[in-house]
Amino acid sequence: MRYLWQDKKTKIEVEVERKMRDSDVPPDKPEAIEAGMEVEDFAEADWEKVIIGGIGHVGFGQKGSW
Known about the structure:
The protein is α+β, with helices and mostly antiparallel strands. Helices cover 17% and strands 23% of the residues. A three-stranded antiparallel β-sheet has the order 2-1-3, with no helix packed on it. Strand 1 and strand 2 (13-17) form a beta hairpin. It is elongated and about 55 Å long. The model has no long low-confidence stretch (mean pLDDT 84).
């Protein structure tokens, strides 16, 4: 799955691909640098996961769920 992370200080966004069980693992150094972050900024990065959407569905006889 793909996840979007943003550094609170620099506002740089990094999209990473992770297994679902690793969804809380922020970007590593090579991923952040590839997205345009400076090496010095990576050491002080404060990452937060950005929720960009979800998929809703309605099953037979159900009100719907996410």
